[in-house]
Amino acid sequence: MRPNSSPVPALNSSRPVLGPIALRIGSAIALGLCLAAPVRAQVLLADVAAADRALGVNAPAYHALMEGRVDDATSLLRSTLAANPADSTAHQLLCRVYYAQDDAEAAIHQCELAVVAAGDDIQASDNQLWLGRAYGMKARHAGVIGGFSLARKVENCFTRAVELNPANVAALSDLGEYYVAAPSIVGGGGDKARALAARMMPRFPAAAHQLLGRLADSENDPATAETEFKRVIAVQGTLAAWVDLAQFYQAHSRPDDALAAIKSGLAADRTHGPALVDAASILTAANRASDLAERCLRDYLTSRAESDAAPAFKAHLQLSRLLAARGDQPGADREVAAAAALAPAFAHSARPAQGL
C-alpha cells in the first residue's frame, strides 16, 4: 500500500461482494454495465497524532466520519466551510459523508468543489478519485445516454487521479476495475487492464494480481482467476485478500470453499476492519454460518478500525437483518436504533426497504 500522500488518509480499493452493504463504488450504467471500483479498507495510520496534524481543523470531522457519525461530521464540516469555503479537505470529507449515505448528487457537488479548491496540489489525486467514485454511484441509476456520459467521466477522473499521483494505488486499482468492466466504446478493454497490471506489478504486486484475477474472471477463465486471487494472499495474506477469494468461490457456486476462505482470513485478521463486513455479506448472501456473520459484524463495530469504507450505520442495519431473520426482534430493533443514532435520515429511509 502506498504511503499517504494527502492530508486525508487514503483508502485501499477492491471489488465489492454481493451483500446488502457491500456498496462501495459499484455502478451499473448503460446496458447493465457494472463499474466495480469500490472502497474496501482504510489504511490504518501508525501515528494517529500525525494524521490529526495533517487534517488540522478537519480532524474531528474525519474521526466522526470514520465512526459513522455522519450528522456530526456534516455539522463540523459545514462550520469549517462557512469560515473557509475553499477548504479542499473539508469538501472532500463532505463528499465522502454524502457518498456513505448513497447520495450521489450531493457527493458529486462536494467533490467537484474539492477538485477546484485543491488545484494540482498533493490532495488533488484523491479528490479526483472520489469524484470518479461519486460519478460511478450516480451512473447506477442513469439511463443509456446518461450512463455512457457518466462512464466517460468516471474514466477521466480515475485517469487524472493516476496522472496526478502515479503511486496512488487506490486510483490505479479503480482505473483497472473500470477497464475490466467497461466496453471499449467508453474506454474499457482487457488489453488496457493487462497493461496497467504490468505497470503496477513491480511496486504494487497484490493490487496487480487482484486486477489480473478480475480480468481472468471476466474472460471466463476461472482457473487463472483463482490462481491470481491466491497470489494476492501469498503477497499480503490479509482478510481482505481472503474475502476476495471467498467472493470468487461464492460467484462460482463453491460455498464450502468460500466459507473455508473466510475462516482462513479470520484466523489471519489483526485489524478487525471493513473486510469483516464484506465477509459477513458473503455469508449472509449464501445463507451460511449466520453466527459467524454476526460475529464479524460485532467485531467490526466494537473495533477501532471503523471507516467510511463500511459505514457503521450500515453494519448495524445489516446486523439487524441477521437478528430479525433468526427471530430476535428486540435485538434487531436495538441495531436499528444504533444506526439511527449515527445516521438518522439514512436509517429512516432504509427501514421500510428492510421491512423493519
Write a structural description.
The protein is 67% helix and 3% strand. It has 356 residues and is mainly alpha-helical. Among the domains are: 1-188, Serine Threonine Protein Phosphatase 5, Tetratricopeptide repeat; 190-236, no CATH class. The strands form two sheets. It has a two-stranded antiparallel ribbon. A hairpin with a 5-residue loop joins β2 (27-28) and β3 (34-35). α4 (88-100) packs antiparallel against α5. The longest helix has 21 residues, at 144-164. It is globular, with a radius of gyration of 19 Å. The termini are far apart. Residues 1-7 and 9-46 have low confidence and may be disordered.
Task: Give a short overview.
With 356 residues, this protein is mainly α.
Please outline the helices and strands.
Blueprint: E1 11-13, E2 27-28, E3 34-35, E4 39-42, H1 48-55, H2 59-66, H3 70-83, H4 88-100, H5 104-118, H6 124-139, H7 144-164, H8 169-181, H9 190-200, H10 205-218, H11 222-236, H12 239-251, H13 255-268, H14 275-285, H15 290-301, H16 312-325, H17 329-342, H18 344-354
